[in-house]
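Structure in, sequence out. Go:
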């Protein structure tokens, strides 16, 4: 039966209960001796979740004439491995659900799936996420009609080169979209300008898509619902006018998460300059977390930071790893602009530009001797410091951080003294 948004059973004008239409089975092709096809893959995942508080059943026809297998699942349930008695061969596995209206999410990663992308996924409404990564689909659909997704994450799902965002994605309703593994460098045909068609999109993450500064369309500023834009591992080397024009976004992010150490760069193109900067934007968070070795980001605060009053979280984790001298310069430059532009007060009730900022400049790494901790001791300057009144004369970057924490209510994450963990200063 069909239910409305409030859980009420829906009927037609004659009072007859409306039944859910039969949904097509979801098909997966593979040529391995087990399903899920995990051979040779590190940390493979094939998980299903039912809506919170509900149980569900998934059914599999393994394509070898064996009996239908049924498994109950609730939250993040891994699908048991089926071993084919006849060994490896190319087969089509069919999957369907006893209660398709209660499916919450599906996560498939590092599986040797081949053949066609499971197009029938588009007929289902997963109330949380569809996440597929590191698979080998040989046919990736480009012209389907579109679907409905709370979160759609497609990461390296085909060995084929795809130079544009498929139409079925831009024709879908997607609230959070993450794409990786496409080649979207050519602005003339990458279809980035078609993302504006996606109804309700709030988060857009474009990872390892060969996007550079010139690839970004001018109409991103017109996606009124968009709040988070992440470029991840792309050679975007400055903040262009197209990015600055996006006054609607509140979180701008570059680079991989800080825990990842890509020593070969993996296509990352660190910001070499601030470009036109962030002045006039409505960001409350700026994340620059490149993790590739040898990348040198600007040592100055972002251009226009004094014209971005909503900015309260600045995430620089991994951006300056292994070089205390650069970290000291960075801290000094930030300190100078804060004391010049912000209101000095120890009161937690005083708001304003560059006050009560969360600054993340930690990097816990495994390089012998690497040191990203600012130099000095976290203490009040010995000369002239007066809590909430006078900054005194700090003699080291750590004393500068003390002033920022006490007189401007900053919270700062740095490496601890043994360089093994994170220390929070406040």
């Amino acid at each position: 039966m069909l239910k409305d948004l409030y859980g009420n059973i829906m009927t037609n004008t004659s009072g007859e209960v409306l039944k859910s239409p039969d949904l097509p089975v979801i098909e997966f092709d593979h040529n391995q001796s087990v399903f899920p096809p995990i051979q040779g893959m590190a940390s493979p995942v094939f998980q299903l979740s039912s809506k919170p508080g509900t149980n569900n059943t998934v059914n599999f026809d393994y394509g070898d004439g064996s009996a239908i297998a049924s498994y109950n699942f609730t939250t993040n349930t891994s699908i048991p491995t089926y071993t084919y008695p006849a060994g490896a061969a190319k087969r089509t596995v069919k999957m369907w659900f006893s209660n398709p209206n209660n499916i919450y999410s599906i996560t498939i990663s590092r599986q040797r799936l081949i053949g066609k992308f499971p197009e029938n996924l588009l007929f289902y409404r997963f109330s949380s996420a569809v996440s597929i990564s590191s698979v080998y689909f040989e046919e990736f659909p480009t012209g389907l009609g579109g679907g409905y997704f709370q979160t759609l994450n497609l990461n390296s799902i085909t060995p084929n080169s795809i130079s544009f965002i498929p139409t079925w994605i831009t024709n879908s309703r997607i609230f959070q979209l993450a794409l990786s593994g496409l080649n979207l460098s050519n602005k003339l045909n990458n279809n980035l300008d078609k993302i504006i068609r996606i109804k309700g999109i709030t988060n857009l993450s474009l990872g390892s898509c060969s996007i550079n500064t010139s690839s970004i369309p001018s109409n991103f500023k017109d996606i009124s619902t968009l709040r988070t834009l992440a470029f991840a591992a792309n050679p975007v080397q400055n903040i262009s006018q197209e990015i600055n024009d996006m006054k609607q976004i509140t979180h701008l992010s570059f680079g991989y998460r800080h825990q990842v150490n890509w020593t070969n760069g993996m296509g990352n193109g660190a910001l070499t300059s601030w470009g036109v900067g962030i002045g006039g934007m409505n960001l409350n968070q700026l994340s620059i977390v490149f993790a590739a070795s040898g990348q040198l980001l600007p040592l100055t605060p972002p251009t226009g930071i004094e014209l971005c009053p909503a900015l309260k979280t600045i995430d620089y984790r991994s951006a300056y790893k292994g070089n205390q001298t650069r970290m000291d310069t960075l801290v000094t430059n930030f300190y100078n602009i804060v004391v010049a532009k912000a209101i000095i007060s120890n009161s937690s009730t005083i708001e304003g530009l560059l006050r009560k900022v969360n600054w993340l400049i930690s990097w816990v790494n495994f390089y012998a001797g690497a040191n990203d901790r600012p130099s000095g001791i976290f203490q009040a300057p010995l000369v002239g410091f007066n809590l909430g009144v006078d900054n005194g004369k700090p003699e080291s970057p750590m004393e500068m951080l003390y002033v920022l924490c006490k007189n401007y209510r900053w919270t700062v994450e740095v490496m601890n003294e043994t360089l093994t963990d994170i220390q929070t200063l406040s």
